[in-house]
């Protein structure tokens, strides 16, 4: 039993490190870290806006684990590309609104830093939405056609 656990650990670690080096893995990891920093800044100034950072950090971590463990190919009842696209699209909209409101209010320095980082997060989530747009990733091939002369 201990040998099978020991053999499965390098495979899990290799999957984690391999996904972490992909563009999607780097983006999700950056989203998690940026949401954590924004959460700390909002926590230092006011707790009213920290809910957005917590929710987006949790969703980014869930998608990171799903893609890292290759669960998106095993769980078929969820359309993962569209779910990821809508997650990032909603994050862009909410971070833009929240950051503009925070910057217009002009609070203390940590609140202003959180607003600026929120705008950066909106750009990061926007880029993630752009690269995960499902229709952009589909390649269309030409349909086979019959010859104009009819069957040969």
TrEMBL record:
Superkingdom assignment: Eukaryota
The MARVEL domain, residue ranges: 19-137
Gene Ontology terms, MF aspect: chemokine binding
Alphabetic keyword roster: Membrane, Transmembrane, Transmembrane helix
Claim: Transmembrane is one of the keywords in the record: yes
Protein topology in the membrane: Multi-pass membrane protein
Primary location class: membrane
Annotated GO CC locations: plasma membrane
Transmembrane feature ranges: 26-45, 51-73, 85-104, 110-130
Subcellular location per the Swiss-Prot or TrEMBL entry: Membrane
Function: May play a role in cell differentiation in the intestinal epithelium.
Protein name: Proteolipid protein 2
Lineage: Eukaryota, Metazoa, Chordata, Craniata, Vertebrata
Originating gene: PLP2
